[in-house]
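Record type: monomer structure entry
Structure origin: computed from sequence
Chain ID: A
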Amino acid sequence: MEIIGYLASVLAGLSLGLIGGGGSILTVPILVYLFSVSPLSATEYSLFIVGITSLIGVIPLYRERSIDFRMALLFGIPSALAVIFARKVILPAIPEEIILFDSVIILRRLMIMLFFATVMIAASLFMITRKEKVEKNLKIEPKRNLGLIFGEAISVGTISGISGAGGGFLIIPLLTILNKVPMKKAIGTSLLIIGVQSMIGFFAGLPAANPDWHLLLKITALSVSGFFAGNYFSTKFSAGALKNTFGWFVLCIGIYIILRELAF
């Protein structure tokens, strides 16, 4: 299973390189089902893997001037604070067991995985159904609705902190559709936000995590290599087709997680 896990880790980085998001959506299930990492630890590991991969991936986009630093700052600060709150307050507050109706016991593992699967399914449906017209955004000055940006950032940061997902699958459409950031800049800006907030979230929970650094660094290296491969091939395919295909793939994984965790 480990060999499959290593190959899948390259795939997670590949998705980040191809579409600028989605890597963390794959990373948590890879860690849980292929490397037998606990769901709580998997969310911690995922923040590191996706954070490092995203920050390294920002470098070529920075050289191309494909990053909106002001938007990254406006979005990134509240998002990072929400990640810290989720890792420090929300997750520790979830009990190991919740007893419902005096007989039904829900484990924290189940709650985390079902929450993650729900996020996956919602993100996949968004990718599948969203009809983006990139060319209309190219010459429009990005909007600076601070209230809207703050609300978006808090929501994304909270979801990222709980699930371990970087949030690129949410950040990119929020930047392009609601804030009118051109697609190429949205991808670069999203990677910067993902990288910073993920690393902040990782270090916020590090004292209690006790990670397996050998495994973590191997998977991260594979993810980074996958990112550069994906970035190279991203110019060879239609962005719409990539997002649609990836959306269906994520939908299938989300449904699989729910069925597996509920033992159907």
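Annotation 1: Residues 134-138 have pLDDT under 50 and may be disordered.
Annotation 2: DSSP finds ten helices and two strands in the chain.
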